[in-house]
Structures
1.
Amino acid sequence: MLKLGIIGTNWITQQFVEASEETKSFQLTEVYSRTEGKAKVFADKFQADDVTLTTDLETFFSSEKFSVVYIASPNSLHFSQAKLAIEHGKNVIVEKPSTSNIHEFATLQELAKAKGCFLLEAARHIYEPIFKKIQSYLEENKDQLSGATLSYMKYSSRYDDHLDGKEPNVFTTKFSGGALYDLGVYTIYDAVVLFGIPEKVDYQAEILSSGVDGSGSLTLKYPNFDVNIIVGKTKNSFMPSEIYFGKKTLLLDSGGDINRLSESDEDKHPSEIPTTKSDNPMDSEAIEFARIINENDQDKYAQLSRYARIVNRVLEHARASAGIVFEADKDE
């Protein structure tokens, strides 16, 4: 198994490490946190006595105990941490979005190429069997494709803190937060992987007092159809997502965490499409990332790098159309 170091001790990091253990893809060997107490609490969850705990990034990346780092810190920290990792010869798996803007992303890609390292953006849902089923359905019906509506809205547990005058990371420009750069990334990955590069991007956002978007409507224009995206962290939506094929419609229960697929036409109720889904949605991603690194699969890596580059460019164009400026932009 590949030796793994992690940055970030939140639930998503725990989920990735659990997936790594379940699939025997990566072995946790080192944990970085700003405080040793948090690092120890995280390591203890996995009863791993041989895991090294580190509170200094330079020491962490100088370690020879791991060759791959998984980064799940606040968005604005991804660039500097990934850059330092690559400079130390580490392969990087970074949570989406991997950077705050396309300039940072291009810098990391060029550095990774120069250093011979992998830079992988963790968009876990595109590796799941259920997403592969969507791709197969699309391939079989591509001549009838006529658009899509993708929705992913969940009331954030941190929104109440924002309303109380606090500054949670996910709702500040300092940490490159907002709905688009959180839940919206899932739906943009859906569009890019399934439909390709949009010709035009327009984002109508509900801007919060902190300067980030709480929710919004995004339109991606393609040559023959539009993809309409609804994202939000200030309200809940239970609306399914849909991909249109003339009279026929493919229904997804979500634009992000996809659990069910069904098909409908004008004459009948939706019929469910059988599919499978792991209890841990990161299992497929962990398996694929480990395979790419172990096999040095440059063809697949090039494809995923292209997806990530397009997604990060769409994110920036959408943000610009809504007038959202991150503090990270000032460093360009």
Note: The radius of gyration is 20 Å.
2.
Amino acid sequence: MSLKKEYFHFKLNKENNDVKRDSFAKREFDTISYILKQFYNVDLKKGFKILDLGAGDKFLEKIFDKNGILYHSLDIEDLDFEKDKFNFDDNQFDLIISLAVLEHLKNPDIFLQESMRVLKKDSLLFLSTPNWKYCKNSFFDDVTHVKPYTPESLQQLLEIKGFKEVMTMPNLRCKSKKWYQGKFRFFKAYYLLPFKGDTKFISDFLKGKSKGLFAIGKK
């Protein structure tokens, strides 16, 4: 393959990956926005200050910036979530999000204490993690997973750490309110949505199968 063709394929793949990345970020933003509005009557609005814990490559930064929300982040290159304090003053943030981080921490005490400290009064912590009840056979396939949670255990943990109005729900994306609530919400999200969200040639009505959970708590 010529250098020109190699460059073309590289550029095309990069553009495709950027489109997928932006689409995924918008999906996350829309889901978080919807859940906060529906269940806590909170609008993600211009001027909000948010902290993304475990931000990775900061793929959410662009979508928050686009909506006028002040984005800050911390990850493992910045600190040890199990030992270090966050380098922010008290009562700084309107929202903290942390997607797929908690299961990697042997001891979440400092992580949650610091989250509580830097949140403003009545502001929210939004977490996602695998749901042990539906991923027992695969949870430890990821060697970095060290601590599993059920909806009940995570709710208890957040309440012990002082969070109020704690809610747990399936980590579905962009579904109607009925999918996030009710006694059998986790069962429905796993068994009544048989296909993953990225499955091709399947109606959206049947997609979204969830093995994970969201947990939200208010300071």
Note: Confidence is low (pLDDT under 50) at residues 1-12.
